Input
Amino acid sequence: MLNQVQLIGNVGNKEVKTVNGKKLVSFSIAVNDRYTDKDGNTRGTVNWFNICSFQERLVNLIEKHVKTGDKLFIQGSLNNNTVEKDGKKITYTGISLGYGSKIELLTPKKQSPSEGAGEAGSWESYSQEPASSDMDDRIPF
Output
């Protein structure tokens, strides 16, 4: 079985909270979809996706380094959640980042002269899978 979603988009709102004693990060991502219609006009839509994770290391990285407007590549899995609101059950689909997920910050980060590349706590990409020396494994598409 395979349940995998890959997106590249810009971060909307971001929230970190504690649920049952564990930190949870949730944020939205806006993905632009552009196309040319039959008259040759460029059209576009924006699709918003809700992302969440309980992975402690991932929560900490996103909390510290990801800001509204940043461009991210994410790979996660679809999940359906049902909540009850005003006596009605509402089901929505979200994307969760857990084991096997990947996230890569595509927005270039500015460094001050005192900051060095590879400084502890800095990151460009994160994966729950073992690192590979094969360059093709790191290309997200």
